[in-house]
């Protein structure tokens, strides 16, 4: 009987550890009156079909959506959707990223981890005025347009990428079975009061 109890303790500990690791994938911080986000243990440029395409000199669009809820999980406080087109320079062995939605920005000569961090940094958001004790939740999802139904296979990406309306429609339906995607990752509940008291993490 004692052996059975011991294994139950081990299983419970491992389950709790796994849940803690999942909870830490999306990290939220408050800086300069903005919500900032970072991803832990998540690397969308580390392998799979997107990296294969990049190494074959094909640019790959990645669609990002960050949603913050307030009061309850049903009330959307703020949502940002954007597209980042990533390309890889074979000779220099580094990445270039173009943020497609306004304000359009780009960075080049980045390592994979620098490119990933730069994309996530662009999803920081201002919040409307709200009580510091209001419960908040955050949800983050990434999808790569690396399948035959994506814009790479139906025509050129275009100078402006997908329209904001098209990007929102992308996230209104589940990811395709063969489509590379990450998340959704979630954080919360937390409050601005909590974030202002706690040290910055995930930097």
What's the arrangement of secondary structure elements?
Elements: H1 2-23, E1 26-31, E2 34-39, H2 48-55, E3 60-70, E4 76-89, E5 94-99, E6 105-110, H3 112-121, E7 136-144, H4 164-171, E8 181-190, H5 192-197
Antiparallel strand pairs: 1-2, 3-4, 3-7, 4-5, 5-6, 7-8
Query: What characteristic shape results from the CA principal axes?
Result: globular
What does the largest sheet look like? Answer: 6 strands, antiparallel
Strand content: 25-35%
- Provide the structure class: alpha+beta
Portion of residues within helices:
25-40%
Poorly predicted regions are: 3-23, 149-158
C-alpha-based Rg, rounded: 19 Å
Q: Strands of the largest sheet, in order across it?
A: 6-5-4-3-7-8
Distance between the termini: 46 Å
| Count, helices | 5
* Total discrete domains: 1
Mean pLDDT: 81
Element pattern in H and E: HEEHEEEEHEHEH
Number of strands: 8
Keywords:
disordered N terminus; 6-stranded antiparallel β-sheet; 33% strand; 203 residues; alpha+beta; 8 strands
Could you characterize what this model shows?
By secondary structure, this protein is α+β, with helices and mostly antiparallel strands. Helices cover 27% and strands 33% of the residues. It is built from 5 helices and 8 strands. It has a 6-stranded antiparallel beta sheet with strand order 6-5-4-3-7-8. Strands 1-2 form a two-stranded antiparallel sheet. Strand 3 and strand 4 form a beta hairpin. The longest helix is centred in the first third of the chain and has 22 residues. The N terminus is likely disordered.
């Amino acid at each position: 009987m004692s052996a059975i109890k011991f294994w139950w303790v081990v299983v419970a500990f491992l389950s709790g550890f796994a849940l803690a690791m999942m909870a830490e994938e999306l990290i939220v911080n408050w800086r300069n009156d903005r919500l900032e986000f970072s991803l832990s243990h998540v690397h969308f440029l580390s392998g799979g079909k997107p990296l294969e395409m990049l190494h074959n000199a094909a640019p790959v669009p990645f669609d990002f959506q960050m949603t913050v809820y307030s009061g309850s999980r049903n009330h959307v406080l703020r949502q940002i959707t954007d597209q980042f087109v990533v390309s890889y320079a074979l000779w220099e062995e580094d990445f270039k990223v173009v943020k497609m939605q306004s304000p359009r920005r780009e960075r080049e000569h980045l390592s994979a981890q620098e490119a990933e961090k730069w994309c996530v940094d662009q999803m920081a958001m201002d919040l409307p005025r709200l009580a510091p004790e209001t419960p908040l939740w955050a949800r983050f999802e990434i999808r790569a347009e690396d399948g035959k139904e994506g814009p790479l296979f139906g025509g050129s990406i275009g100078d402006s990428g997908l329209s904001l309306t098209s990007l929102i429609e992308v996230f209104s339906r589940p990811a395709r079975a063969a489509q590379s995607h990450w998340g959704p990752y979630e954080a919360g509940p937390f409050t601005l009061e909590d974030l202002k008291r706690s040290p910055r993490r995930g930097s």
